[in-house]
Amino acid sequence: MKTGFIGLGAMGAPMARNLHKAGLLHGVWNRSADKAHALAAELGCAAPATLAALASECDALVMCVAADADVLAVIDALVPTVRAGTLVIDCSTVSANTARRGAELLAARGAHFLDCPVSGGTEGAKHGTLAVMCGGEEKTFEAARPLLEAMGKTVRWFGPSGAGQSTKATNQIMCAGIIRAVGEAMAFARAQGLPLERVVETLGQGAGSSWYFVHRAPFMIREAYPPGFRIKLHAKDLQICREMAAASGAVLPVVEDVLREYTTLIDAGYGDEDISAIYRLKSELFAPFENPNAKTIAALLRRIRTIAIVGLSADPSRPSHGVAKSLQKFGYRIIPVTPGASEILGERCVPSLDRVHEVLAPDERVDLVDVFRKSEHVAAIVDDCIRLRMPALWLQDGVIDDVAAARARNAGILTIQDRCLFRDRAALA
User: For residue 20, what pLDDT is reported?
Assistant: First the structure.
């Protein structure tokens, strides 16, 4: 079976090499042509200039690209010229709906489609030991089995189109929880003064072990995180999980917590590191509170849209009033959290953070809680923010509680204290 491979990134290139070892690879294509030409020269295979040309020469096409839009763009490019009977296998991680749409588009041309996302990281891609989760017609899966077994050790069919992606989403949720737990455990072990290499060697044989513990805890010990599974890619996958769950009216607390932590890491410039870099945050659990760096604060202020302001005064002479008015001018929506007032600056007031949802649109959420209360009230506000899973907390000038701020930070809330929100935002203009 003459096979073409599309997408030669950290996963795709070694997967293509394994198809070559099995005598199945005919040619390769990549959006950046240099990668395709380099791999073609290494393997002695073709590197056609266009997807259409690659498709015309192959019986099967395997793709491994980054996102839903990329998958659909490849399929759109194939549809006009793909031959009837061509087998198209997508090993990307995308939504189940994207997989079903791809199957429909190709079926109209008489081509066959399988969604076959993989798990096992770059190590599994290199060694051909990936777990492959397949959706589509079972007879198509059986026809594709030789290709899939050249790239993976565990190859399973789960049902119709989209089932492979749903299985992968299940896997990504588990990965999120496990890597978070491993990071917290290793931070705890370090804080206890334990010999960390011995911890990994011993607990790796115990009931709490996992692939991530055995293979990624050593990264944490060294505090070096070479890309195996990049944070920004796992964050993309968890967004897919969030959307799929939301379609059923569900919220996944583990997904929400890890996405919040990944956002902090991405904003700080660590999005291309392995997901074991979550240890960067977990190691702070036992450290005194410090404000995030300027880059992280700037990224937060550019990203947020809705700010709940605790202690906003209706008195125009009060600092909170002036700051809130300025924030509106910057384009933010403000929500006054102020008992005893009905409306401030054109926005309906709510008496507590518990009631904020009453004034939010269906697709709106609080991005930041800004606090204009005395320091002695911070601990209770932090309790509310943790309980309500607020993503970020800002304590204004002179509002300081190191213990409560550390507790918020350790709960995954991006926390800033003793700074003026208006001044930091104005500095970005």
Answer: 98
pLDDT tens figures, 240-295: 999 999 999 999 999 999 999 999 999 999 999 999 999 999 998 999 999 999 99
Q: Are 37 and 30 in contact (CB under 8 A)?
A: no
Which residues make beta-bridge pairs with 6?
Answer: 29, 63
DSSP state of 82: P
CA distances from 160 to 97, 181, 229 (A): 12, 33, 27
In the chain, where the domains are located? 3-161, 167-285, 288-426
Supply the pLDDT for residue 103. 97
Tokens of 77: 């490019």
pLDDT at 1: 85
Q: Is 295 a catalytic residue?
A: no
Q: Which helix (H) or strand (E) holds 4?
A: strand 3-6
Catalytic residue among 168, 232, 295, 329: 168
Sign of the CA dihedral running 173, 174, 177, 182: negative
Q: How far is CA 174 from CA 230, 237, 238, 258, 383, in A?
A: 16, 12, 10, 11, 27
| Residue pair 87/142 in contact by the 8 Å Cβ criterion | no
Per-residue model confidence (pLDDT) at position 227: 87
Maximum pairwise Cα distance, the chain: 77
pLDDT for the residue 340 = 86
CB-based contact 62:83 (threshold 8 Å): no
Q: What share of the chain is helix, strand, coil (3-state, %, to 5)?
A: 50, 15, 35
Q: What is the pLDDT of residue 238?
A: 97
Which superfamily is assigned to 288-426 in CATH? NAD(P)-binding Rossmann-like Domain (3.40.50.720)
Closest-CA residue to 285 (of 176, 186, 416, 199): 186
Positions in the chain whose pLDDT score sits under 70? none
Pairwise CA distance, residues 132 & 29, whole Å: 22
Fold match, 3-161 / 167-285: no
- Domain 167-285 fold is N-(1-d-carboxylethyl)-l-norvaline Dehydrogenase; domain 2 (1.10.1040)
- Nearest to 302, CA basis, from 419, 392, 373, 228: 392
pLDDT at position 333 is 97
In single-letter form, the type of residue at position 133 comes to M
The CATH code of the domain at 3-161 is 3.40.50.720
Specify the DSSP class assigned to residue 85. Answer: T
What's the pLDDT score for residue 95? 95
Say if residues 200 and 218 touch (Cβ distance below 8 Å): yes
233: closest CA among 270, 282, 181, 279?
270
